[in-house]
Amino acid sequence: MSYNTFGHLFRVTTWGESHGPALGCTVDGCPPGVPIDEAAIQHWLDRRKPGQNKYTTQRREPDQVRILSGVYEGRTTGTPVQLMIENTDQRSKDYGEIAETFRPGHADISYWQKYGHRDPRGGGRSSARETAARVAAGGLARAVLAALVPDLEIRGYMVQMGPHVLGPERDMDEIEKNPFWVPSAQAAEDWAAYLDGLRKSGNSCGAAIEVVARGVPEGLGAPVYGKLDTELAAAMMSINAVKGVEIGEGMAAAALTGEDNADEIFLGNDGKPVYASNHAGGILGGISTGQDVVVRFAVKPTSSILKPRASITKSGQPTEVVTKGRHDPCVGIRAVPVGEAMMACVILDHLLLDRAQTGGTRGKIG
Amino acid sequence: MSYNTFGHLFRVTTWGESHGPALGCTVDGCPPGVPIDEAAIQHWLDRRKPGQNKYTTQRREPDQVRILSGVYEGRTTGTPVQLMIENTDQRSKDYGEIAETFRPGHADISYWQKYGHRDPRGGGRSSARETAARVAAGGLARAVLAALVPDLEIRGYMVQMGPHVLGPERDMDEIEKNPFWVPSAQAAEDWAAYLDGLRKSGNSCGAAIEVVARGVPEGLGAPVYGKLDTELAAAMMSINAVKGVEIGEGMAAAALTGEDNADEIFLGNDGKPVYASNHAGGILGGISTGQDVVVRFAVKPTSSILKPRASITKSGQPTEVVTKGRHDPCVGIRAVPVGEAMMACVILDHLLLDRAQTGGTRGKIG
Amino acid sequence: MSYNTFGHLFRVTTWGESHGPALGCTVDGCPPGVPIDEAAIQHWLDRRKPGQNKYTTQRREPDQVRILSGVYEGRTTGTPVQLMIENTDQRSKDYGEIAETFRPGHADISYWQKYGHRDPRGGGRSSARETAARVAAGGLARAVLAALVPDLEIRGYMVQMGPHVLGPERDMDEIEKNPFWVPSAQAAEDWAAYLDGLRKSGNSCGAAIEVVARGVPEGLGAPVYGKLDTELAAAMMSINAVKGVEIGEGMAAAALTGEDNADEIFLGNDGKPVYASNHAGGILGGISTGQDVVVRFAVKPTSSILKPRASITKSGQPTEVVTKGRHDPCVGIRAVPVGEAMMACVILDHLLLDRAQTGGTRGKIG
Amino acid sequence: MSYNTFGHLFRVTTWGESHGPALGCTVDGCPPGVPIDEAAIQHWLDRRKPGQNKYTTQRREPDQVRILSGVYEGRTTGTPVQLMIENTDQRSKDYGEIAETFRPGHADISYWQKYGHRDPRGGGRSSARETAARVAAGGLARAVLAALVPDLEIRGYMVQMGPHVLGPERDMDEIEKNPFWVPSAQAAEDWAAYLDGLRKSGNSCGAAIEVVARGVPEGLGAPVYGKLDTELAAAMMSINAVKGVEIGEGMAAAALTGEDNADEIFLGNDGKPVYASNHAGGILGGISTGQDVVVRFAVKPTSSILKPRASITKSGQPTEVVTKGRHDPCVGIRAVPVGEAMMACVILDHLLLDRAQTGGTRGKIG
């Protein structure tokens, strides 16, 4: 059992609370000999770092990662890699009330019901701050993938913010140019206006994120509970505030006919199968086919809002909760690098699993 | 790692292929002393059994379960329970072509790419026939749950068939009265007409299923990768043909504001929290709150259709695939008892986990 | 957690009781494409089969194995392999008393204390009959090893029976010529006389078994809890009646000095390291070095004896236990093939693990 | 798979190298609400701390533990506990040669063969310094056990140093009075003289340690691969330099007859079973009976000695190794608190497992 671990062979255990002295992750099973240093991991952490624009929490955390073990002279040794991020901006005074009152939509009440004792500062372990450790692990996973599958590319971006849904066009060059990682200049503009309004009114909104992996080797994933899509669903659903996960066509598959849904197969010029469409999201029977692996997930609106909501206290008294403090009006934004990190970890894990069982040999076509 | 196992403490390993001599599951970790017999498990298997009406495959399988171990004098012993179902109607001649041709939408190609050797008869291991073993395991899980949490109730039903989406009303008394387990007499009628048309034209359609667990104890689930919703997402996504999973509000959460999404909390007459709504689907921070746990998943259309689709052979030649044989025009129908079984297994597993870590003690409210 | 499973990537879950309808094992993670059939597994089972000579239980079990899944056209498919052995000679009348009385040295009392309900027939799950399933799994593991590491050789033999300890000489050609698998014609003769006497007097004796693996690739095993010796210790200790496990020098290492214990290293003619001695038993820091891997384990005397022993009944009454029925006077004999099977499974498991993490690459010497 | 993790529900992952910036452990699954602070853990670490007398390495490490997560206001929260120990006295100059030369008896060669890249400073991950993290985890386990099973007592002590074997008498009051934790004033004196001689001559010796747990609840352990003795064997064998593990009678069981080995059972005055002897070491069929759980393990002599030993370099050249630096002449001494820590972790883990599966209910006797 692994309450706080994910992965089978590339095993990531995250630890730490929002306002404790530090947080981080222990990564076991990392292949040896892979070039890595703190800067390479920091690159990814900086994307998730709070306080970078007005749409994310104003908590100031440098999120500096330290490698405490498992790396020697710039390369992984194959032993556990410990990545630690110290918390520096822990204004726990902002969170004093939480200890006695349950904030609707937050895990305050469920943690209390389960454990009977919890760290209430900033949500403690249930804080989205935990995802910094995932991004660090994802940075390590990317370094390993770069060594093993150089052509693999993982990109995440927003496809929905509140009621605003991105159309089918994706201008990938726009992703890095706007604070939402949305692949559309027009959407970036519209969404900014929408979010400004929400933020000023003390409200928040949900979002949907899409993560695509291009160049995934065929044959990753294992029937029937170690399916690649099963693991991706778990990985994404484990991110704070996620309420739905889709592979390829996703929930819309329910409305299709078999004729429409079939991704017809042809032989490409390079002797590899090509497909007329990708309803499957790159996965058949839980195993990658070589097509793009496409995952989407929905993030619920930030529960910490200035709008008063009815609730109760620990002693059962009715109360009203207004959450001040520093919060993201749309937590979905910072979920983009987190989703990418999870994708990287899952693909690497399955690459290792496949290498174990099949030795990477493949049935031939053509 | 567990390619074919799910669960942490109530561990279910399924085995067997569509056209092998038998299939079944090995259940390890079952609590001792629980009353169980073959009839109790057969009850649930009979719901999934093929050939019961014109909307499911006409393959005739009695799906008789045998308990080979772990039960003595009508009660579980705490040692592994082996449940075996013999395959009797194995007309593998229906499936001869598959060995050389890849059927679009099926796992033929990905299994071949991964393993380089596979049992092609009826899809082999990738066949939905595997889910019979899940339903058997679910029957055992239900028996244990009945002993530990007598008030728990798990119900699954269809909420969408192709383009036909069920409205918000649910007439639960209708569920057992129609072949679709849809909680609406009108929908049952409309869907029958729609499916008849599809079936005659040799086409198929997708579906969405909702599974609700009522009476789930609060405190089940564990941060941050053993979340109850994480495990449910994995469990449902592991079912054949599932492409999306939602908890509570699901993908629609992306469109909400924080104000709308907050499930306001009050104190009920019984001194327990009550909620004004259930956008959360009964889970906060990955831990059950005592509200109904609500999961939905989408099943893609049956890929085996009479409509010709373009594909290639193993040797890379272009071909056209028309799948004859005995197939469900909507595999989503028989996914209902499977979804229920997965829900039962996941809840039991987390009940045992919670009992291990917290001893079942709870923080008090009021 | 895996109560009844061992292995990480080659995962064996055994199931079944002494007097239930059948027993067997579910093997998950087996590499695909490996030639195997029932006869190949039966070969190993026949070595463990009871009733083959006067020194083992006279229970008559053909121990015929059936492959129910995971093999197609004579090769493994990479999906779970189910191996089943039906119980045929279940004279449970012999065991009637056990239900109410605790036999000293047996698990009757501990199973009762733990579970409060158990299958008492022939010891139920605690019977050494469970080891038949291990031997079947070991047969499969050997087939995979033969494909991956053709030069690997695993041999087990007895090195002690009661007070009779084999000297340092081993005449390996004798192993298959006597019922004790002892590598010495003289010992075989002496031990037969000793065991005849014991058997006639209704007593029993302990034994020690040594299992040696030759040709184990270097680099297997992983620090610090997945060490090869850690796993071997667990594997052997999990065999019924085993009370001690040794690697290389074993318990005698306590008496050595560092000077004596050091296995000095030289470079062999083939450019590989050679060692002046093998106190380490082929494992340093938990990782194989390429030397012979040497394991020994001690089996306690059969607890089922005709000599009366004091005990109590379930209701707490004093009683005297005399165990009639069909029992091995020295269970250690049939532990030989079981130890070999465990060695095969552990080595294969670690071969797959190593392939996953390092890709099988090795640091160069010379 | 868990290369660097042990435990199923109380999961300890250790990380860190001998001469890296820090080492520690991540403990997942710790029950909530248990009183703990750094001082309570430091108490146990201080027993293992180097440099306390002339018989252990003169490396000076304060081994100060810091709790970085999982504890709030003096009690565990049920989320991961991170325990970190910074390395302060890292004279890696002492170890410069190791990078190019393989020290006989050390893991230098096997790590190199496996990983092709390693941290050679002080043995890196293979250093016994890793056991500090185990002792820290054991301190936490003891705190939890104190809350759940107040009467449980775990004591470790040496029973052999080189050729000097302790007789059957144990004067437990002596344990804390001598540097060897040997329960005999006379042995302490004799062993000191012996070890002084060895140390001066630059040699080292092996040792045997016994760890006894008194007050272990009956019913812990699970057939057939999660047996309590199986897990104890793995736990002890995973400690650096251990070559053999025994439960109860251990390897000597091979020489006994069934009549001698049977622990006869009587009913005690408190209505609980009492036994005339404890050959079983408190475990039958892998499950605890309530008797003392008795484990012994042998530690090989320190491989770092001043005596020259033949070896080779990475480039295959013959060489002679003399290991200067600061080393324990008998590493077995500091293995005592490590063995105790492993016992505490295993028992706690199985207590949680038993609570999960059986709910702690017990079959009644009398």
Write the element-wise H/E pattern of chain A from the N-terminal end onward: EEEHEEEEHHEEHEHEHEEEEEEEH
Q: What is the count of distinct domains of chain A?
A: 1
Point out poorly predicted stretches of chain A.
none
What is Rg of chain A?
21 Å
Query: Any idea what the CATH superfamily of chain A is called?
Result: Chorismate synthase AroC
> Any idea what the shape of chain A is?
globular
Strand content of chain A: 15-25%
Overall mean confidence score, pLDDT of chain A? 93
CATH domain class of chain A: Alpha Beta
**Oligomeric state of this protein:** homotetramer
Largest sheet of chain A: 5 strands, antiparallel
Tell me the distance between the termini of chain A.
43 Å
Number of helices of chain A: 7
Write a structural description:
The structure is a homotetramer of 366-residue chains. The first copy, chain A, is an alpha+beta fold. In chain A, 26% of the residues lie in helices and 22% in strands. Chain A is built from 7 helices and 18 strands. The longest helix of chain A is centred in the last third of the chain and has 27 residues. The model of chain A has no long low-confidence stretch (mean pLDDT 93). At the A-B interface, strand 1, helix 2, helix 5, strand 11 and helix 6 of A face strand 1, helix 2, helix 5, strand 11 and helix 6 of B. Strand 11 of chain A pairs antiparallel with strand 11 of chain B, so a sheet runs across the interface.
